[in-house]
Design brief:
This protein is an all-alpha fold. The chain has helices at 2-25, 31-48, 54-98, 102-131.
Length: 138
Protein backbone atom coordinates (compact mmCIF):
# COMPACT_ATOMS: atom_id res chain seq x y z
CA UNK A 1 0.00 0.00 0.00
CA UNK A 2 2.87 2.33 0.74
CA UNK A 3 4.23 2.21 -2.79
CA UNK A 4 0.84 3.16 -4.21
CA UNK A 5 0.77 6.32 -2.10
CA UNK A 6 4.24 7.30 -3.26
CA UNK A 7 3.36 6.52 -6.86
CA UNK A 8 0.17 8.62 -6.64
CA UNK A 9 2.14 11.57 -5.25
CA UNK A 10 4.83 11.16 -7.92
CA UNK A 11 2.17 11.10 -10.65
CA UNK A 12 0.88 14.43 -9.40
CA UNK A 13 4.33 16.01 -9.22
CA UNK A 14 5.12 14.92 -12.80
CA UNK A 15 1.93 16.49 -14.16
CA UNK A 16 2.10 19.38 -11.71
CA UNK A 17 4.68 21.28 -13.71
CA UNK A 18 2.56 21.13 -16.86
CA UNK A 19 -0.59 22.24 -15.04
CA UNK A 20 1.27 24.93 -13.14
CA UNK A 21 2.68 26.30 -16.38
CA UNK A 22 -0.77 26.15 -17.98
CA UNK A 23 -2.39 28.04 -15.11
CA UNK A 24 0.30 30.72 -15.29
CA UNK A 25 0.04 31.14 -19.06
CA UNK A 26 -3.76 31.04 -19.62
CA UNK A 27 -4.62 34.41 -18.03
CA UNK A 28 -1.96 36.24 -20.03
CA UNK A 29 -3.26 34.83 -23.30
CA UNK A 30 -6.15 37.28 -22.93
CA UNK A 31 -3.73 40.15 -23.45
CA UNK A 32 -2.31 38.82 -26.72
CA UNK A 33 -5.38 39.99 -28.66
CA UNK A 34 -6.21 42.53 -25.94
CA UNK A 35 -3.32 44.90 -26.67
CA UNK A 36 -4.09 45.12 -30.41
CA UNK A 37 -7.76 45.65 -29.54
CA UNK A 38 -6.83 48.62 -27.35
CA UNK A 39 -4.54 49.98 -30.07
CA UNK A 40 -7.14 49.74 -32.83
CA UNK A 41 -9.82 51.21 -30.56
CA UNK A 42 -7.81 54.38 -30.05
CA UNK A 43 -6.70 54.43 -33.70
CA UNK A 44 -10.31 54.24 -34.89
CA UNK A 45 -11.17 57.08 -32.50
CA UNK A 46 -8.47 59.25 -34.07
CA UNK A 47 -9.46 58.29 -37.63
CA UNK A 48 -13.16 58.98 -36.95
CA UNK A 49 -12.59 62.74 -37.00
CA UNK A 50 -9.98 62.71 -39.78
CA UNK A 51 -11.38 63.84 -43.12
CA UNK A 52 -10.78 61.42 -46.00
CA UNK A 53 -9.90 58.45 -43.77
CA UNK A 54 -13.15 56.53 -44.05
CA UNK A 55 -11.54 53.35 -45.35
CA UNK A 56 -8.80 53.44 -42.72
CA UNK A 57 -11.44 54.04 -40.04
CA UNK A 58 -13.53 51.07 -41.17
CA UNK A 59 -10.44 48.85 -41.32
CA UNK A 60 -9.38 49.90 -37.81
CA UNK A 61 -12.93 49.39 -36.54
CA UNK A 62 -13.10 45.88 -38.04
CA UNK A 63 -9.68 44.95 -36.65
CA UNK A 64 -10.71 46.28 -33.24
CA UNK A 65 -13.85 44.18 -33.34
CA UNK A 66 -11.89 41.07 -34.30
CA UNK A 67 -9.26 41.45 -31.57
CA UNK A 68 -11.76 42.55 -28.91
CA UNK A 69 -14.07 39.59 -29.44
CA UNK A 70 -11.11 37.22 -29.56
CA UNK A 71 -9.85 38.56 -26.21
CA UNK A 72 -13.24 38.49 -24.49
CA UNK A 73 -14.52 35.15 -25.81
CA UNK A 74 -11.09 33.54 -25.52
CA UNK A 75 -10.84 34.79 -21.95
CA UNK A 76 -14.24 33.30 -21.16
CA UNK A 77 -13.08 29.94 -22.51
CA UNK A 78 -9.82 30.15 -20.53
CA UNK A 79 -11.66 31.07 -17.32
CA UNK A 80 -14.08 28.18 -17.82
CA UNK A 81 -11.15 25.82 -18.40
CA UNK A 82 -9.49 27.00 -15.20
CA UNK A 83 -12.72 26.54 -13.23
CA UNK A 84 -13.11 23.01 -14.63
CA UNK A 85 -9.50 22.22 -13.66
CA UNK A 86 -10.10 23.60 -10.16
CA UNK A 87 -13.25 21.52 -9.82
CA UNK A 88 -11.44 18.33 -10.91
CA UNK A 89 -8.60 19.00 -8.46
CA UNK A 90 -11.11 19.69 -5.69
CA UNK A 91 -12.96 16.43 -6.37
CA UNK A 92 -9.65 14.53 -6.29
CA UNK A 93 -8.78 16.32 -3.05
CA UNK A 94 -12.09 15.30 -1.46
CA UNK A 95 -11.70 11.72 -2.68
CA UNK A 96 -8.26 11.45 -1.10
CA UNK A 97 -9.41 13.13 2.12
CA UNK A 98 -12.32 10.71 2.54
CA UNK A 99 -9.91 7.86 1.80
CA UNK A 100 -7.75 9.08 4.72
CA UNK A 101 -4.80 9.78 2.42
CA UNK A 102 -4.11 13.29 3.70
CA UNK A 103 -0.48 13.45 2.59
CA UNK A 104 -1.40 12.89 -1.05
CA UNK A 105 -4.44 15.17 -0.83
CA UNK A 106 -2.57 18.34 0.13
CA UNK A 107 -1.06 19.10 -3.33
CA UNK A 108 -4.47 18.67 -4.97
CA UNK A 109 -6.02 21.15 -2.57
CA UNK A 110 -3.31 23.68 -3.33
CA UNK A 111 -3.71 23.14 -7.08
CA UNK A 112 -7.47 23.68 -6.75
CA UNK A 113 -6.93 27.01 -4.99
CA UNK A 114 -4.30 28.05 -7.53
CA UNK A 115 -6.61 27.34 -10.49
CA UNK A 116 -9.41 29.29 -8.81
CA UNK A 117 -7.08 32.22 -8.17
CA UNK A 118 -5.94 32.30 -11.79
CA UNK A 119 -9.53 32.09 -13.05
CA UNK A 120 -10.19 35.34 -11.22
CA UNK A 121 -6.99 36.75 -12.74
CA UNK A 122 -8.27 35.87 -16.21
CA UNK A 123 -11.56 37.62 -15.49
CA UNK A 124 -9.67 40.66 -14.20
CA UNK A 125 -7.59 40.90 -17.38
CA UNK A 126 -10.78 40.60 -19.44
CA UNK A 127 -12.19 43.49 -17.42
CA UNK A 128 -9.09 45.58 -18.16
CA UNK A 129 -9.40 44.93 -21.89
CA UNK A 130 -13.03 46.02 -21.73
CA UNK A 131 -12.23 49.03 -19.52
CA UNK A 132 -9.56 50.33 -21.90
CA UNK A 133 -11.75 49.95 -24.97
CA UNK A 134 -15.49 50.37 -24.56
CA UNK A 135 -15.09 51.67 -21.02
CA UNK A 136 -13.08 54.66 -22.30
CA UNK A 137 -16.05 55.78 -24.40
CA UNK A 138 -18.27 56.28 -21.35
Amino acid sequence: MRSKKKQNHQDYSAGSKKVSLLTWILPWLVLLPGFPAIHFYFKSGILFNTPGAEEAYLRAKNLFSLFYHTAIYGGAVFAALEVIMAFCYFLTYLKLCFGKDFASAKPYGKASLKCTFFAFGTLLLMFFVHAFTYGMGV
